[in-house]
């Protein structure tokens, strides 16, 4: 946990009070989870929150609540204004650092595929992989080395190298990246896969906006 968010406790708010909070550049939120008798309502500075989410969206975040001390949490849900994209509300889940958690880790493509040099197209089928580990072991990214992939080759989750203590929870045969043949040589199945990827990229782009814009 490299960052600590300073938050303030708040009472259950009316719509008018929530508008006042947001107008002041703050974000209302709720903390759920272990060790809490009931959900804790909080208020966070919007700029501080956006900065932390850009760097630690899938990691453990520490929040400092006056009267309750520092609490380890993970992002549970985030709501944005559909037009301005400002963060409107956020939910955190308090975790136990001594118990394993399941979360998503982003994939980081490294190397240059020989297949691309031959005219092939590198297709990233998945942008993240679901993992299980202790909170302290959550990696920033999972490295995907494509430097050995020729045209027609692919990598599966089972072929990835995970840090010690980190395991994938998805089917190890799931393909995450492939090198398609040059366009004039592509089969109908590969062209269909490209269409599916375009749709998946659109969805991932929309999901990423929930964290990357602030």
UniProtKB/TrEMBL annotation:
It comes from the Bacteria. Residues 186-214 are annotated as: Disordered. Residues 5-92 form the Large ribosomal subunit protein bL25 L25 domain. Residues 100-183 form the Large ribosomal subunit protein bL25 beta domain. The keyword Ribonucleoprotein applies. GO terms for cellular component: cytosolic large ribosomal subunit. One of its GO terms (biological process) is translation. InterPro entries: Rbsml_bL25/Gln-tRNA_synth_N, Ribosomal_bL25/Gln-tRNA_synth, Ribosomal_bL25_b-dom, Ribosomal_bL25_C, Ribosomal_bL25_long, Ribosomal_L25_dom, Ribosomal_uL5_bac-type. Keywords: Ribonucleoprotein, Ribosomal protein, RNA-binding, rRNA-binding. GO terms for molecular function: 5S rRNA binding; structural constituent of ribosome. Belongs to the bacterial ribosomal protein bL25 family. CTC subfamily. This is one of the proteins that binds to the 5S RNA in the ribosome where it forms part of the central protuberance. Part of the 50S ribosomal subunit; part of the 5S rRNA/L5/L18/L25 subcomplex. Contacts the 5S rRNA. Binds to the 5S rRNA independently of L5 and L18. HAMAP family: Ribosomal_bL25_CTC. This is Large ribosomal subunit protein bL25. It comes from Cohnella endophytica. The gene is rplY.
């Amino acid at each position: 946990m490299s960052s600590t968010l300073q938050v303030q406790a708040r009472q259950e708010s009316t719509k008018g009070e929530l508008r006042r909070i947001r107008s002041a550049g703050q974000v209302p939120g709720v903390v759920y989870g272990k060790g809490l008798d009931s959900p804790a309502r909080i208020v966070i500075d919007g700029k501080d929150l956006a900065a932390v989410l850009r760097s630690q969206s899938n990691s453990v975040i520490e929040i400092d609540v006056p009267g309750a001390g520092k609490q380890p949490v993970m992002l549970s849900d985030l709501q944005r204004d559909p037009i301005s994209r400002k963060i409107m509300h956020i939910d955190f889940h308090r975790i136990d650092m001594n118990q394993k958690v399941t979360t998503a880790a982003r994939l980081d493509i490294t190397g240059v595929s020989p297949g691309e040099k031959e005219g092939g197209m590198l297709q990233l089928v998945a942008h993240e992989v679901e993992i299980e580990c202790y909170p302290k072991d959550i990696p920033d990214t999972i490295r995907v080395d494509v430097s050995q992939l020729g045209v027609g080759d692919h990598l599966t989750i089972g072929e990835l190298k995970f840090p010690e203590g980190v395991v994938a929870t998805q089917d190890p045969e799931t393909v995450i990246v492939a090198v398609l043949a040059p366009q004039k040589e592509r089969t109908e199945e590969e062209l269909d896969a490209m269409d599916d990827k375009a749709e998946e990229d659109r969805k991932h782009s929309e999901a990423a906006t929930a964290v990357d814009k602030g």
